[in-house]
Amino acid sequence: MAEERGLATAGKKDSTGICFIGERDFKSFLQTYLPAQPGAMKTPDGEKKGEHEGLMYYTLGQRQGLGIGGSGEPWFVVDKDLENNVLVVGQGSAHPRLLSAGLYGSELNWISNETPTAAVRLKAKFRYRQPDQDVILHVQEDQTFYVEFIEQQRAVTPGQAVVFYDGDVCLGGGIIDDIVRSKKDGIA
Fold first, then answer.
1. C-alpha angle with apex 29: 26 to 30, nearest 5 degrees?
2. Which of 70, 118, 131, 185 is such that its CA lies 20 to 30 A from the CA of 12?
3. pLDDT digits over 27-51, tens only?
């Protein structure tokens, strides 16, 4: 699209990190400004699998860098217990704790300023380069919202953005506040 419009940035490499830190290692950057708080790495059942270097260094769905191996399927970050400084890990890319049926969000920004007042079926993305996902958006009067997933989604992460589309047209987006593990936990 940028190339079609003759933009100078058309051939520029995409950024997947924090653009303002430049060509530095993300972990080293954080260590310079934030003290690490190591803690336990446990399964959802409480079995200790090791130690983590600080919750800030891990993302939901992450597989690399956990230091757990030799026991069948790969291990993934499935949750973060901030209160107890525990990194929760589970085996397998389809671990139930990685899947969600919906999300709650806030800070909704609708580009046309005509925010939907009734439930509307749209496409959405929760991660960079993710294929469009079918969703139903329910906007509340206070501009918070609930997004119902047509198919369960993997590793939807609070604090990240959800962006809504109609075909190739970006309609708006908001911030993911919380995930909904099953349809019964969402709104009616």
1. 90
2. 131
3. 677 777 777 899 999 999 999 999 9
Distance CA 139, CA 160 (A): 18
The predicted-structure confidence for 66-93, as pLDDT tens digits, reads as follows: 999 777 899 999 999 999 999 999 999 8
Q: What residue spans of the chain are helical by DSSP H?
A: 26-33
* Architecture of the CATH domain 19-93: Roll (2.30)
* DSSP-based three-state secondary structure for 4: coil
78 alpha-carbon distance from chain centroid = 12
> Domains of the chain: which residue ranges?
19-93, 97-185
Q: Is the pLDDT of residue 24 over 70?
A: no
Quote the pLDDT of residue 32: 73
Class of domain 97-185: mainly beta
Q: How many residues are present in the chain? A: 188
Cα separation, 159 vs 136, in Å, equals 20
The whole-chain average pLDDT of the chain stands at: 86
Strand partners, 77: 89
DSSP secondary structure string for all residues of 77-89: EEEEETTTTEEEE
